[in-house]
Amino acid sequence: MQPFFLPGERGQCFCLYHTPADVSLARGAVIYLHPFAEEMNKARRMAALQSRAMVAAGFAVLQIDLLGCGDSAGDFSDATWSAWQEDVLRAYRWLRTQTKVPLTLWGVRGGCLLAASAAVHLPEKANFIFWQPATSGKQHWQQFMRLKMAGELASGQSRGITEQLRRQLAAGEAVEIAGYTVSPALAEGLEAAELEPPARGDRQVIWLETSLRDDATLAPVSQNRIEHWLTAGYAVHAKVVRGPAFWQTSEIEDAPELLAATQAALASLT
């Protein structure tokens, strides 16, 4: 594992690069894009476990902390959606100085939205791994705002909080939600994001969700979005596996069946 800082105009991004013993024999290269806000921290252990498993299977993996996140430069308030897209492109350019093997973008939750939007600007086709993908940035942002509402409800001051947040953002003011200061540019970019396929297909998508129910199936919104990817020419391998919502549990939890399902599906990525 190689930790390093990737330089950029807005500051350095902290990265971890995992490679097989002989990178020249790598089967593929993966860029990991973490989820939004506190979900990033809750997902760190699963990301680390999966990265190590991918390396054992012959893949090179680059993990990047986006601007204002984790150990990267800046505060969360400095982040914008376009800056995060540029972080992905910088990670891609660096990775291509190390290896030329087929590319996969691996996202968790909101990281899936970022993967799809950044892929539009890549000079080559990419495979995708989506873990519990957020299919709509607008819905994802609304869910995040509910954290603010929950906090205000506990203090008896929840009335009109959503409209208040929207007025602040429209006036160019940042908003604070669950300890994270979100800029208008980040909120606007996230709200506009949709999990739509890039204009080119002929690649693979591994779409995995977790549930603690034995009879769980993909939600209609997921099935509908998968149809978009199939229509665009992507081969989609979608499945629900048993496991906790590790990105939001109060304690750090593992989802071993998600790891196993991801490893089994990796054979399709070329």
Write a brief caption for the model:
This protein has helices at residues 38-56, 81-95, 110-119, 137-154, 161-170, 184-192, 220-231, 256-265; strands at 2-6, 13-18, 28-33, 59-64, 103-108, 127-131, 175-177, 180-182, 204-211, 235-242. The chain has 270 residues and is of the alpha/beta class. Strand 7 (175-177) and strand 8 (180-182) form a beta hairpin.
Key features of this structure:
two-stranded antiparallel sheet; 270 residues; 10 strands; alpha/beta; globular; Rossmann fold
Rg calc = 18 Å
- Average the pLDDT over all residues and give the rounded result: 94
3D shape: globular
CATH architecture of the largest domain: 3-Layer(aba) Sandwich
> Which sheet architecture does the biggest sheet show?
8 strands, mixed
Give the H and E element order. Answer: EEEHEHEHEHHEEHEHEH
Q: What structural category do the secondary elements indicate?
A: alpha/beta
Approximately how much helix is present in the residues? Answer: 25-40%
Number of strands: 10
- What's the CATH C level of the largest domain? Alpha Beta
Total of helices: 8
Question: In whole angstroms, how far apart are the ends?
Answer: 23 Å
**Range of strand content:** 15-25%
Q: Within the largest sheet, what's the order of strands?
A: 1-2-4-3-5-6-9-10
Q: In total, how many domains does the architecture comprise?
A: 2
Low-confidence stretches: none
CATH topology of the largest domain: Rossmann fold
Q: In the CATH hierarchy, what is the superfamily of the largest domain?
A: Alpha/Beta hydrolase fold, catalytic domain
